[in-house]
């Protein structure tokens, strides 16, 4: 038989248990909140890292493109890039069959330099040359870029210790120098003189923007 006092005690015990249960819920919510803050912090750090990486990449691109941009004129920039390319050929021609790593590194630099240079010419200078009324020379120079890519492909796949490596480099240089002479002596001087100051400035700006993409 249950007495009134005993029943009242049971009610009090059940009532006393409720605040404890209520207290457990905020603790769980606090843990979830802490988890959310942790995830937010991770996302924030990742975002900062991404921005820092983009800034660093833009800075690197600016450094690579700086010599061409500082030339102040698209034709002068092209001549500066031609000279820098020939310096890479100079370095490659001084290597021996034992310098396989150096050959690979120089070839990688040459591919990047010529790739950026060709990208700019094909997307800006040659179209401007066609627009100025000389599609034949523009198409001829553009066609020669295909053989530049062929040389780079063959050198990439050639054993860097092969005695044939320097022979291929020498043949490549001869064709590059012929291409450079066509641009610097035969075609671009007249083309540059034909354009107005405003048009030359526009070509220069467009050339720098395009080259920056692959810098």
Which helices and strands occur, and which strands form pairs?
Elements: H1 4-70, H2 74-93, H3 100-131, H4 135-157, H5 164-194, H6 197-214
Helix pairs in contact: 1-2, 1-6, 2-3, 2-5, 3-4, 3-6, 4-5
What report would you give on this structure?
With 215 residues, the protein is an all-alpha fold. Helix 2 packs antiparallel against helix 5 and helix 3 runs antiparallel to helix 6. It starts with a helix and ends with a helix.
Write a short abstract of this structure.
The chain is mainly α and 215 residues long.
Q: Strand-residue fraction?
A: under 5%
On the 0-100 scale, what is the average pLDDT?
82
Shape annotation: globular
**Oligomer description:** single chain
Radius of gyration: 34 Å
Task: Give the terminus-to-terminus CA distance.
Answer: 93 Å
Any idea what the CATH architecture of the largest domain is? Up-down Bundle
- Count of DSSP strands: 0
The CATH H-level homologous superfamily of the largest domain: nmb1532 protein domain like
Order of helices and strands: HHHHHH
Q: Could you tell me the CATH topology label of the largest domain.
A: Four Helix Bundle (Hemerythrin (Met), subunit A)
User: Can you identify the CATH class of the largest domain?
Assistant: Mainly Alpha
Q: What does the main sheet amount to?
A: none
- Give the total of domains: 2
Helix content: over 70%
DSSP helix count? 6
The low-confidence runs, each spanning 5 or more residues with pLDDT under 50, are: 1-8, 20-24, 30-34
Structural class: mainly alpha
């Amino acid at each position: 038989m249950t007495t009134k006092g005993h029943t009242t005690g049971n009610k009090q015990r059940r009532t006393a248990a409720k605040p404890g249960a209520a207290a457990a819920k905020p603790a769980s919510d606090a843990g979830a909140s802490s988890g959310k803050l942790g995830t937010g912090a991770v996302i924030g750090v990742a975002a900062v890292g991404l921005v820092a990486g983009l800034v660093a990449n833009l800075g690197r691109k600016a450094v690579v493109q700086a010599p061409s941009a500082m030339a102040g004129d698209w034709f002068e920039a092209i001549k500066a890039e031609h000279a820098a390319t020939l310096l890479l050929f100079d370095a490659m021609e001084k290597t021996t069959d034992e310098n396989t790593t150096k050959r690979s590194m120089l070839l990688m630099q040459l591919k990047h330099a010529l790739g950026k240079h060709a990208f700019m010419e094909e997307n800006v200078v040659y179209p401007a040359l066609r627009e100025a009324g000389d599609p034949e020379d523009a198409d001829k120079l553009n066609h020669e870029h295909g053989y530049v890519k062929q040389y780079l492909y063959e050198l990439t796949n050639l054993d860097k210790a092969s005695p044939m490596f320097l022979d291929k480099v020498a043949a490549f240089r001869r064709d590059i120098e012929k291409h450079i002479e066509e641009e610097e002596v035969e075609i671009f001087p007249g083309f540059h003189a034909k354009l107005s100051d405003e048009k030359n400035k526009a070509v220069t700006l467009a050339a720098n923007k395009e080259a920056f993409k692959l810098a």
